[in-house]
Amino acid sequence: MKNKFLVLCAFVLACSFTMLKTRPTIYIIGDSTVRNGSGAGSDGLWGWGSFMNQQFDTVKVKVENHAIGGRSSRTFLTEGRWDKIMAKLNKGDYVIMQFGHNDGGAINDTSRARGSIKGIGNESEEIDNLLTKKHEIVHSYGWYMRKYVQETQEKGATPIVCSLVPRNVWKNGKVERAGQSYGLWAKQIAEENKAYFIDLNEVVAAKYEELGKENVEKFFPKDHTHPNYEGSKLTAQIVSEQIQQLKKCKLKKLLK
């Protein structure tokens, strides 16, 4: 009887190990609104990616938040961060991406040099980067997003494009949208490449309006861009709800 019990235990452990070893990974990439600082809220500010592991059954799927503050669609690539994900990305994995907040900055300066060309076209600008001291060809926001999407698909993984979350900026009782700029361009890249799209810019803005300006102000203790624990957790819940609505997306089966 004891031997049978030990065999059963060994079998269960082996199955558990196999499941953990073969479970897919969700890679999240983005800026400080997705992962602020170390991702642990040390400064009272968070990003919605820090709460996504709470939305999924982590026995069945692994969640890795690779977003980092201050990065644009361009600098996440040029710093080699995307290459590190590509080296690990496997068939059946997922990449959730959100960029745009930092893409409107200067293309070439001595402080950040992180801007991309506006739009989704193939135009480029050749520069000698004043910050990195390297020669660089700068592309459009859409070019970089297209690269992330297409290379994810080439690996047999699933890309999910998110439009950038809105800032706490109001006009005439409405939250300011990016529906004619980065929000639109993110949608166009997703549609062009038959990728899943979550319009976080619109959905979160609508939720803020439902809550009211006074309540939303509490989510932004330091500026109009970076939310606190409650604000970031709310966005993570919204991302989860939006994934649940994506047609034919297998990732929804891995939600709690």
From TrEMBL:
Residues 1-21 form the signal peptide. The keyword Hydrolase applies. It comes from the Bacteria. Keywords: Hydrolase, Signal. Residues 29-233 form the SGNH hydrolase-type esterase domain. The keyword Signal applies. Belongs to the 'GDSL' lipolytic enzyme family. PANTHER family: PUTATIVE (AFU_ORTHOLOGUE AFUA_2G17250)-RELATED, RHAMNOGALACTURONAN ACETYLESTERASE. This is Rhamnogalacturonan acetylesterase. It comes from Flectobacillus roseus.
